């Protein structure tokens, strides 16, 4: 864990040492793909949840004997 934290500290120090425009460009280059990946994963989870919900609902009884 200390190795990761040391690496992260060096990345943070490098990023804050840049001027504003390179900071924005690096941040955008990292944040846009990360946001797309998170949205894709969330979409898969929601689709899976509703697929399971639909299967459970369709196999359940409707209260008639």
Q: Can you write the helix and strand succession as a string?
A: HH
Give the class from helix and strand content and strand pairing: mainly alpha
What distance lies between the first and last C-alpha atoms, to the nearest angstrom? 59 Å
- Inertia-based shape: elongated
Description:
With 65 residues, the protein is mainly alpha-helical. The chain has a domain of 28 residues. It contains two helices and no strands. The chain is elongated. The mean pLDDT is 90.
Salient structural properties:
65 residues, mainly alpha, elongated
Task: Produce a short descriptive summary.
It contains 2 helices and no strands. It has a domain at 28-55. It has 65 residues and is mostly helical.
Question: How would the blueprint of this fold be written?
Answer:
Blueprint: H1 2-17, H2 20-59
